[in-house]
């Protein structure tokens, strides 16, 4: 699972009902486990996942990416995961945004060059897998010895994904978690709309962040070809819209003005200096927006 030269090797853990103990050499100890979920912060769900990991691997470091993904918003969870995991240490990345929990959807673990991913097979993991180098190996999580003694039908984060992640993080071999899965059968989210047009492009809103910035699916090169003055409007609207400036950072426009720029993930984004572009544009994930260049006046 890990061919990084010079990485300190640890023993493979023997799976027990309590703390995971060591017996033989492991090729792939992880530095961290990360958690990305839609569990929120008002209940004990996140703490239960932390506790499950700590009971099996007490010294393991856990990083909380976010637990504020909108409930059931798999696209948002996938975007956050894919844009965050490349900046984390080599580890096991657990993601749970799982409207289909308890159904026939598979629980899976994926090995990539940059780390392992654990979660539901609903499209949540694959963008992150691509960002980490692509899926080298995939398994379905069916080994009962790796799971909680009693698996809830509605809380696989605690009973399936957290214990699997703890075992993988201390070096248990991935194939022991369950049977191999053909990566071509993994569920992938539909490709977001990105369509170049004569005077600009149409792109789907991927996500809206805490500040109300609107991230589009469009790559940076589509914006680079456009002039300094732009118009932004719904894809089906041929009139009206909002004037925007093609700039580099928020202060390139006056307070309250709309900016089109390349964000930290390398996507085209729309922002309002001191405001919320999502409200100005009435944009939510899935909205199609048209960005056109305007002739200099």
Structure explained in plain terms:
The protein is of the alpha+beta class. The protein folds into two domains: 10-185, Rossmann fold, CATH 3.40.50; 194-293, Bacterial fluorinating enzyme like (Elongation Factor Tu (Ef-tu), domain 3), CATH 2.40.30. 18% of the residues lie in helices and 31% in strands. It has helices spanning 45-56, 74-84, 126-131, 156-169, 220-224, 277-281, and strands spanning 10-14, 21-26, 32-37, 61-66, 91-96, 107-112, 115-120, 137-140, 194-197, 200-208, 214-219, 229-234, 242-246, 258-262, 267-272, 288-293. The strands form three sheets. Strands 10-11-15-14-13-12-16 form a seven-stranded mixed barrel. The chain has a six-stranded mixed β-sheet with strand order 4-3-5-7-6-8, with helices on both faces. A two-stranded antiparallel sheet has the order 1-2. The radius of gyration is 22 Å and the shape is elongated. It starts with 9 loop residues before the first strand and ends with a strand. Residues 1-17 and 19-27 have low confidence and may be disordered. This is SAM-dependent chlorinase/fluorinase. Residues 11-25 have a biased composition (Low complexity). Residues 203-287 form the S-adenosyl-l-methionine hydroxide adenosyltransferase C-terminal domain. InterPro entries: SAM_HAT_C, SAM_HAT_N, SAM_OH_AdoTrfase, SAM_OH_AdoTrfase_C_sf, SAM_OH_AdoTrfase_N_sf. Belongs to the SAM hydrolase / SAM-dependent halogenase family.
């Amino acid at each position: 699972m890990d061919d990084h030269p010079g990485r300190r090797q640890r023993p493979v853990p023997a799976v027990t009902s309590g703390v995971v103990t060591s017996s033989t050499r492991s090729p792939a100890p992880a530095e961290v486990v990360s958690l990305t979920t839609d569990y929120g912060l008002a209940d004990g769900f996140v703490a239960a996942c932390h506790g499950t990991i700590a009971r099996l691997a007490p010294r393991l470091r856990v990083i909380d990416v976010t637990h504020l993904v909108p409930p059931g918003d798999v696209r948002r969870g996938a975007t956050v995961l894919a844009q965050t995991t490349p900046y984390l240490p080599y580890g096991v990345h657990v993601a749970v945004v799982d409207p289909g929990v308890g159904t026939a959807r598979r629980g899976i673990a994926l090995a990539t060059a940059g780390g392992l991913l654990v979660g539901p097979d609903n499209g949540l993991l694959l963008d992150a897998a691509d960002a980490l180098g692509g899926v080298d190996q995939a398994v379905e999580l069916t080994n009962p010895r790796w799971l909680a003694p009693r698996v809830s039908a509605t809380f696989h984060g605690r009973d399936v994904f957290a214990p699997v992640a703890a075992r993988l993080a201390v070096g248990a071999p991935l194939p022991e978690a369950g049977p191999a899965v053909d990566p071509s059968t993994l569920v992938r989210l539909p490709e977001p709309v990105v369509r170049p047009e004569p005077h600009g492009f149409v792109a789907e809103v991927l996500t809206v962040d805490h500040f109300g910035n609107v991230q589009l699916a469009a790559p940076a090169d589509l914006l680079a070809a456009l002039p300094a003055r732009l118009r932004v409007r719904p894809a089906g609207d041929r009139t009206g819209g909002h004037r925007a400036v093609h700039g580099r950072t928020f202060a390139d426009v006056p307070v309250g003005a709309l900016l089109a720029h390349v964000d930290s993930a390398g996507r085209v984004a729309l922002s309002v200096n001191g405001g919320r572009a999502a409200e100005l544009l009435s944009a939510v994930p899935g909205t199609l927006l048209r960005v056109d260049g305007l002739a200099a006046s």
